[in-house]
Amino acid sequence: MHNLMDDHMHALKRILRYVQGTLHFGLHLYPSSTTSLISYTNADWGGCPDTRKATFGYCVFLGDNLLSWSSKCQPTLSRSSVEAEYQGVANVVSESCWLRNLLLKLHCPVHTTTLVYCDNVSAIYLAGNPVQHQRTKHIKMDIHFVGEKVSRGQVRILHVPSRYQIADIFTKGLPLVLFQDFRDNLSVRQPPASTVGV
User: Fold this and answer.
1) Nearest Cα to Cα of residue 21 among 194, 170, 190
2) Residue 74, φ and ψ in degrees, nearest 5
3) What confidence tens digit (pLDDT) does each residue in 23-46 have?
4) C-alpha closest to that of 57 among 41, 78, 46, 35
5) Which CA distances in Å does 110 have to 8, 46, 148?
6) Do residues 78 and 54 make contact, with C-beta atoms less than 8 angstroms apart?
7) Three-class SS of 30-65
8) How many other C-beta atoms are found inside a 10 Å radius of the C-beta of residue 101?
9) I need a labelling partner for 128 at 20 to 30 A (CA). Which of 31, 44, 113, 177 fits?
10) Mean residue pLDDT across the chain
11) CA distance 24 to 53
12) What is this structure's pTM?
């Protein structure tokens, strides 16, 4: 128990040190002529050392701008990395559908297919071929939900190499250079240099 408490305190100190060093960072939005929804999703299967539950993470862009993001622990245990990744895909597809409906109500309909990038080849295969078998019967609702969106052409699930999987920033610790690269891709940056007197 004592070792677990030390681990939590160490993690808390790291988080506080990071937050203190980035208080001046913010989310930057830019004019964009692109109105498509593009999302990235990832799951760290069994990543929580205490519960062995997966951590899901995703981000959704509207054109060049980050519109929505999430990082949370899965409520139940996954039996495989494919199951964890596929539930992550279902989460971001659900979020994308909600955003499409919101944009429609705001008179800014999205006419293009939502692209969902995932780095798990088996989860991508399952999205395009929603066959039921023993290993996936407990995620049947997610399979039908995603499969329906794919068959209607509303969503397309594509592979992204792990090096370009931006959603990794929400699910696991990363080397500093990769973390900073992904943070920049999310448009979380320092404010531009002051132009006063120029």
Assistant:
1) 190
2) -65, 140
3) 888 888 888 877 899 999 988 765
4) 41
5) 43, 35, 18
6) yes
7) CCCCCCCEEEEEEEECCCCCCCCCCEEEEEEEECCE
8) 12
9) 44
10) 78
11) 33
12) 0.76
